[in-house]
């Protein structure tokens, strides 16, 4: 008879063989990957991870998708989850459980202008809930009748399901998956480095923000129900809007009765040096969606948080034939997992007790400063970011700002990894523009670890481009 720890044991070659023969890796397969061994991560501590061959890497990506906020190897999270699982692992979200109630209260402390929390299990699903709220409200609320269209921004990403992809402004993420859900309409992005209007900030008239009103008027204000945005565009290239952007956009939304949805899936929980990405701006969203850092990815969890006035639209009267079906008829199976809420409570406690948001702000300033020193290399075009969320856009030369090739970007990424550092990149998203390297380390990072990352990138650039 096996023991409860048998699954921790493995044979290296058997795992390598099983990885190749059994797993369908995310964002793969490619023929080249079929012919070579893939990295298999087996252990992590702090910002360091170790692969199955025993090689150690400094991870500057918080688990590859910017979500392990408190670092690897947090025993207290594992212990809290274990204790909760022994007591009560799960019951459907149509009922309550203690960890869900406690964590909902904690979230509302962090979002005092919002009042109700709906739990699910992924960022895509959190955004789907927001979309369904908009759509159902457009059917049952006389004040919002017909306001079913949802605007989204070029280069923003909102998830991998068909509706979430319908609201995603990244062509290569969407390509081949259509037809998409009707009623999603794109607005322009707000990147100063490659301004759509050939203007220079701050001498511009904020055309990128006022374009939202142009789209609403074109579509018909009576048909537009919401605008969803990432407070700082993530996978589309790390694009922080200037400070004037969101106040203008919010005024436009309020003018036409358009709900503003902030997708904090990436930016939330201290990533940008504030607890929420939108806290950098004078803005008051109607809904906030979140995932990733919610439980530091020790468990799968997401949430959709809304204002009371939105929740109240769905207060039905079962005895009234006209309003009987007006409640939000939605359920998420894993929204009832007590272990996920427990992990989120403990992860948030760590963030608070260890002042990790402040560390993100302080070390984030240092990270951006050090990355900007790389601009002495001719292939480094723009360096941008906020907190522990930075990006480098690579170009053939700084005069033309022509992007390097994807082949060159792939070689550069490999050379960084060859230095024992894992960084991210814009990947399979923007045609001809997947040339942005991104940095989103765990919030526990030190300045010494920043120096190690930047040194590895500098060495890799010199090796790749002989400069």
Structure summarized in a few sentences:
With 467 residues, the chain is an alpha/beta fold. The chain has helices at residues 12-22, 31-34, 62-66, 75-87, 98-110, 123-140, 162-166, 171-174, 207-219, 245-255, 308-312, 338-353, 356-372, 406-418, 447-465, and strands at 41-45, 48-51, 56-59, 116-120, 149-153, 184-187, 224-229, 259-263, 287-290, 302-306, 380-385, 390-394, 421-422, 424-425, 436-439.
CATH class of the largest domain: Alpha Beta
Average the pLDDT over all residues and give the rounded result. Answer: 95
Strand adjacency order, main sheet: 4-10-9-8-7-5-6
Based on secondary structure, the structural category is alpha/beta
Q: Count of DSSP E strands? A: 15
CATH architecture of the largest domain: 3-Layer(aba) Sandwich
Task: Tell me the number of helical segments per DSSP (H or I, 4 or more residues long).
Answer: 15
Overall morphology:
globular
Q: Work out the helicity level.
A: 25-40%
> Which percent band covers the strand fraction?
5-15%
